[in-house]
Structure formats: C-alpha cells, structure tokens
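Morning run. Coffee first, then this:
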Amino acid sequence: MAALSDRPVRVLVVENDTELGPLLARGLTNEGYETDWIEDGTTALITAQAENYGIAVLDVMLPGMSGFELCRRLRDASGALIILMLTARDDVSDRVRGLDAGADDYLTKPFAFSELAARLRALRRRESLAISPRIEVGGLMIDSHDHVVRAGEKVVPLSPKEFALLRFLAQNVDETVQREAILMEIWGTVQHTNPNIVDQYISYLRRKLERLPTGVSLRTLRGVGFELARDR
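And here it is:
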C-alpha cells in the first residue's frame, strides 16, 4: 500500500465575524492545516465546489446563505467532509437542526480555540478509524485522503457523490449492498429522496469505469441491491 500524502488537510472556515474568522484561520494554520477564511455562505459554497477541502468550520449565522443551508449543500456534495458548526446560541433546537443538516459536531460560542482544535482532532481520528485512507480493489486505488481514484496509472474523474458511492461499495467488495444502505450512507436519508438516484449514480460510475483496467465490475441485482465485484 502506498504511503499517505504529506499535504496538510485543507480547512474551509466560514465566519462573518471579522475578528474571529482570521483568528480561527491563523490558529488552524498554526495547527498544521491549510486554511481559507470566507465571510459569507454563497461565496463559501462556490469555493467549496471548486476546491478539495477535508474540513469545514461553519458559523450558523451567515450573510448570503445560512450555515444550516450551507452545511446541507456541502454534505450533499461530499459524505467524507468533516463539518463542525459554530453557534452563538446554546439552543438544543439549533444543535439538532445542524446535526440533521449533516454536521459532525457542534461548538457553542464563546469557546477556547484549544477545544475547537481538539474536537477536529477527534473527528479526524473517528474518520480514520471508520474509513481506510486507501482502498485497493482489483486495479482500482481509492485514496480517501486526496479524494482521488486511479485505475492503473490513469486518474478517474469522479464527482464527490460518485467518489463516496464507489468507496462505500469498495468497502463492501464482493458483497451486495442494499439500496437503502446506500441512500443512508451517501445521501444521509431514505426520506424525500428518489431511490432511483442510486441507479443513476451507478450508471455514471459504470460508464466511467467500464473501459478502464479496473479488474472489477459494477453489478445491479434487481430488487436486492448493488455490488462491486472482483473480476474472476
């Protein structure tokens, strides 16, 4: 197995407080992260779509787009992104709303920076225990650190959802994964989501992989689920 990339984890800080935002960015940079600070939700979403972040620290109250909506959209785009939300209100309903939107953890202002840094370290440990940084199946190498998939020497261009779906199936290689399990893992819910979206993304993946030397096949077992199977 190849060594992990030595590049620092990229963090997106979205905070409209012009004193707190730079302090967080500077503190995280000192912790070894590569950090960008943005003041409004709309610009943050556009930036996140163009860049590859491993962590997002989001304030709830943002101009342009609320932190809740930004969290939901970031989570829809990437199941692997670590999201920590910040709020000035110690309100249970706010915390529940944030967690339901896809946040991994919540921190109430005011807080010590050391606690924020510790929570991010804990979330990264939890992710590293849950997901192997690199998975090799057949001729595929799936790198969760850099969010890159290779078939031999060729990089396979995948959207964040396609990447998350392929990684989930690879974690269960040669096993049938039920549609409901995929919806919960990748989309976070089985409610208000068209279940046919799984078939669509399986089709996208199949088209991108079928002509490459992957050594695996994407199979659809009608009425049962989906499987990433090693070629025999």
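Helices lie at 20-30, 41-50, 67-77, 92-101, 113-130, 160-171, 179-187, 196-209. Good start to the day.
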